[in-house]
Amino acid sequence: MNAPTHRDTLYYDGNCPLCMREVRLLSQIADSGLALVDLHEVPDETGQPTRLEKLSELHLKTADGQWRVGVDATVTAWSHTRWGPLFSVLRWPLVGNLADLVYRYWARKRYQRLYGCGDCAEQ
User: Fold this and answer.
1) Element housing 12 (H / E)
2) How far is 33 from 30, CA to CA, in rounded Å?
3) How far is the C-alpha of 85 from the C-alpha of 98, rounded, in Å?
4) Among 13, 62, 93, 97, fewest CB within 10 Å belongs to which?
C-alpha cells in the first residue's frame, strides 16, 4: 500500500505482536492524515532507510518527506489522535532523553528476540 504524499506514513513491523497491537489501535483512532504501512509489504526504495533500519527502529515519513525515528516517530504518529498531547511529553528535555535511551534499548532487544540477529540491531 503506497500512501498519498499528503499524509504521514508510519512503517511498522507486521511480525511484531506489540507493534501490531499499537497499529490496530492507531488504525481505529487516528485521523486521515496518518497512513500505516507494514514494511514487509513494500520494497526498499533508493534514498530511503532500508528495511533493516526500519526493523531496528520505528520509522515515520512525514507528509513533507522528513524522516522521524524511534520516539519521534511514535510521538508524530500519536499526534494524529486525540491522545497526541499526552505523547508530546516524551519530547520534553529531560523526559525525552530518558525516553530515547529506554526506546533504543527496547528496540534492540525486540529486534534480537524477533529476528535473532544481535549484530544487525547494533548498526
Assistant:
1) strand 8-12
2) 8
3) 18
4) 93
| Contact between 5 and 63 (Cβ < 8 Å) | yes
DSSP secondary structure, 36-105, as one string: EEEGGGS---TTS--HHHHHHS-EEE-TTS-EEETHHHHHHHHTTSTTHHHHHGGGSHHHHHHHHHHHHH
Q: What is the pTM of this model?
A: 0.86
pLDDT tens-digit readout, 89-123: 999 999 999 999 999 999 999 988 888 854 444 44
Alpha-carbon distance 71 to 9, whole Å?
15
| Residue 122 pLDDT | 45
Query: Do 58 and 70 form a contact (C-beta atoms < 8 A)?
Result: yes
